[in-house]
Write a structure and sequence with these properties.
Layout: H1 4-19, E1 23-25, E2 30-31, E3 34-35, E4 40-51, E5 61-72, H2 75-90, E6 107-121, E7 130-142, H3 153-164
Parallel strand pairs: 1-4
Antiparallel strand pairs: 2-3, 4-5, 5-7, 6-7
Helix pairs in contact: 1-2
Length: 166
């Protein structure tokens, strides 16, 4: 069974590391117990689908939807951080691997899709707060308790096996 909390935690950590900016989980991120300075991101789990394992394989599949909200003081900051989020989630190496893996224990996040990019909302610019919203769907498969990382031969075999299924 895919534990969404593990995926959310791994995604939150990846976003903070890849963008170099704090990422909160459903709320303002804190640094040393104090509100993080702008700009930052807030990650919101949005639901998704979970499919039971087929008869020939015990691995379950899920499509997990997340919203990433960029909060900044200016439009240029919001655009800069939104670009970094997009690169963090969608960037690939020349070999096709994810530049920034989402390493959740027991889960292979094998596909990522940008569903919505609402752009920058400057409505709060006069108050010093500008936001940008992006929504992504992560396609994931249960790996039976093994931490999946790009380049792992066991992960590659798991992917070949699930791709052969009807």
């Amino acid at each position: 069974m895919i534990e969404r909390g593990r995926v959310t935690e791994a995604l939150q950590g990846m976003l903070a590391a890849a963008t170099g900016r704090p990422c909160g989980r459903g709320r303002l991120p804190l640094l040393d117990g104090r509100p993080a300075p702008l700009p930052y991101t807030v990650l919101y789990p949005q639901g998704g689908t979970v499919g039971g394992a087929p008869l020939s394989d015990r691995a379950e599949d899920a499509g997990l939807v997340y919203q990433v909200t960029v909060v900044a003081a200016r439009t240029d900051q919001a655009e800069w951080l939104a670009d970094r989020v997009r690169r963090a989630l969608l960037g690939r190496t020349a070999q096709g691997a994810w530049v920034h893996p989402i390493a959740a224990a027991g889960v292979d996040v094998w596909a990522r899709e940008l569903l919505v990019d609402d752009g920058v909302d400057p409505a709060g610019a006069d108050d010093g707060v500008v936001t940008a919203v992006q929504r992504y769907e992560l396609s994931a498969t249960d790996c039976g308790g093994v931490t999946a990382t790009e380049g792992d031969p066991g992960l590659e075999e798991h992917r070949r096996r699930i791709m052969r299924q009807p």
